[in-house]
C-alpha cells in the first residue's frame, strides 16, 4: 500500500535531477527557435554548458543551463567574456584574473538551451515545446532568437518562412522581453 507513494516520490526525484537550477538573481538568456537551427551549438560555444549537438531536428529534449562571465569597461566601450569551467564555482580563475584588473564591471550570466518550437497551436505542442514556452513565461529571461536562413535546418517544419512566422508569434507573446535575433550557420556552404 505504501509502495506506490514511495515509487512516485522516487520518480519525482529522478525527474528533478535533470531540471537545471536557475538563479533568479542572475541574468539569464534563453535561446529559442525552430528545431536544428543551431541553438545548442551556440550555447556550447559561448557558455560552460555541453549540450548534445547533432545535425538532425529535435536533438534537444530538455533545458540545458550554462554560464558565461561578462566583463566591461566603465564607459561600456570594451567588453570580454570568460566561460567558467566545471568545479570552479562558476569562475575560470586564470582567465577571470586576466580581466578583473582591466575591466570595471563583471556579471555572471546564465545561458539556457531549449527544445525547438514549431509553428502550431499551443494545444498541438509536445511537452518539449511546452517546456520552452514555460521557461520564457515564468523565468525572467532575455531572448536570443536563433534562425538558420541557409534553408538547411533539415526539417520541413524549419523552413525560413516557418522560422520567421515562429519569430513573429513568440515575439508577440513576449513583447517586453529583451530580445536579440541571431542568424546561425552562416559559415556553411549550401
Automatic annotation (TrEMBL):
Residues 127-187 form the Nucleolar GTP-binding protein 1 Rossman-fold domain. GO terms for molecular function: GTP binding. It holds the Pfam family NOG1. Signal peptide: none annotated. It comes from the Eukaryota. This is Nucleolar GTP-binding protein 1 Rossman-fold domain-containing protein. It comes from Attheya septentrionalis.
Amino acid at each position: 500500500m505504501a509502495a506506490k507513494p514511495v515509487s512516485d516520490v522516487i520518480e519525482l526525484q529522478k525527474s528533478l535531477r535533470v531540471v537545471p537550477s536557475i538563479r533568479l538573481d542572475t541574468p539569464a538568456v534563453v535561446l529559442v527557435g525552430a528545431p536544428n537551427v543551431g541553438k545548442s551549438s551556440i550555447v556550447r560555444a559561448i557558455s560552460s554548458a555541453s549540450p548534445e549537438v547533432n545535425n538532425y531536428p529535435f536533438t534537444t529534449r530538455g533545458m540545458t543551463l550554462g554560464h558565461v562571465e561578462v566583463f566591461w569597461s566603465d564607459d561600456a566601450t570594451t567588453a570580454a567574456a570568460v566561460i567558467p569551467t566545471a568545479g570552479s564555482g562558476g569562475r575560470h580563475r586564470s582567465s577571470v584574473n586576466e580581466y578583473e584588473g582591466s575591466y570595471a564591471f563583471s556579471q555572471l550570466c546564465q545561458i539556457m538551451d531549449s527544445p525547438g518550437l514549431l509553428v502550431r497551436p499551443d494545444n498541438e505542442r509536445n511537452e518539449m515545446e511546452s517546456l520552452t514556452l514555460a521557461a520564457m513565461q515564468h523565468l525572467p529571461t532575455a531572448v536570443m532568437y536563433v534562425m538558420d536562413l541557409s534553408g538547411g535546418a533539415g526539417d520541413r517544419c524549419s523552413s525560413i518562412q516557418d522560422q520567421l512566422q515562429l519569430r513573429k508569434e513568440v515575439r508577440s507573446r513576449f513583447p517586453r522581453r529583451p530580445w536579440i535575433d541571431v542568424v546561425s550557420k552562416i559559415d556553411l556552404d549550401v
